[in-house]
Amino acid sequence: MKKHHDNNGSPVRALVISGGGSKGAFAGGIAEFLLRQCCHNYQVFVGTSAGSLLVPLLALGETERLKKVFTTIRQSDIFSISPFIIRKSNGSFTYCINHFNTLRMFMRGKKTFGESESLRQLIRRTFTEDDYHRLRASSKEVVVTVSNLSCKTVEYQSIHDNSYDDFCDWMWVSANLVPFMSLVVKNGMEYADGGFGNYLPLREAIRRGACEVDAIVLNPREPGLACQLPVANAFGLLLRTYSFMLEQISLDDLDLGHFESLHQQVQLNCYHTPRLLTETSLIFDPEQMKGWWEEGFRYASEVAPSCMKIGG
Fold first, then answer.
1. Model-level pTM?
2. Quick one: CA dihedral 38, 12, 195, 137, positive or negative?
């Protein structure tokens, strides 16, 4: 049942955030501007992958706490067993396969190159049980997107349909880019990153009654214009292939979202990154992510339509 107005009779507004790994910091900056400077009152929050990690605290208005987390994350906060060796020199990164860790995974009979148990623990430290109960008591709808690989379907998990433990698991599942991160078995099914099925869940926000949707898309509006150098290794090839596929999925999701918004007479506002932020969104560097958050905030201040800006 669509609900086009909230309990106060106001039109339902939704915030949708795509996947994007470490680029989620840029989305955080945009969202901070929309919430704090534009004073947008969102009733529906829908995220995929990195977006799923952002939307619960954004729904609570906890932008400062979220910013502190997203601008201090390191590789060890994400990977309990990292499949990469990453080196930073003069602000640029190189990476290669961590053969030792990959061999450890195979020797243990695991199905992935790395594990992300650290991310699961980070989610529970950041999004507390008290936060969960505050959201449950509110009228906010918070939804994360997951891919059910066993049934080859996309699922949308709402905070109002899950316990605290289950919802934290779904947040974690949504951000697990296999085979680099954990393949999660839950309820007898194998689950992975929501971006495999729906990188930009616009239609789900519209289905849940949104009259206006602000969508943060962590790709440039015109993808593919910046060509990269040849990849250096097999992991680089796999990452670039995934990046290409997810980019195409996001374009399809955007087209479907535009069609649905026209059909349902929903206003759709899209915020793309102004450039290609990174080719490798599985590198989590605090300095880089802090810069992206600040850049996202500045970018939103330049492009936000008809936004009431507080304090100039």
1. 0.90
2. positive
pLDDT tens, position by position, 13-66: 999 999 999 999 999 999 999 999 999 999 999 999 999 999 999 999 999 999
Question: Could you report the per-residue pLDDT of 127-171, keeping only the tens digit for each?
Answer: 999 999 999 999 899 999 999 999 999 999 999 999 999 999 999
215 forms beta bridges with 16, 270
Exposure letters 136-175 (e unless 16+ CB within 10 A, then b): eeeebbbbbbbbbbeeeebbbbebeebebeebbbbbbbbb
Query: 3-state class of 133 per DSSP?
Result: helix
Q: Give me Rg for the CA atoms of the chain.
A: 19
Both tokens assigned to 253: 């999701």
CA distance 26 to 15: 15
Q: Are 217 and 200 in contact (CB under 8 A)?
A: yes
**3-state SS record for 151-181:** CCEEEEEEHHHCCHHHHHHHHHHHCCCCCCC
- Sequence-distant (6+) residues with CB within 8 A of 37 are 300, 301, 304, 307, 309, 310, 311
- Which of 30, 3, 53, 51 lies closest to 198, judged by CA? 51
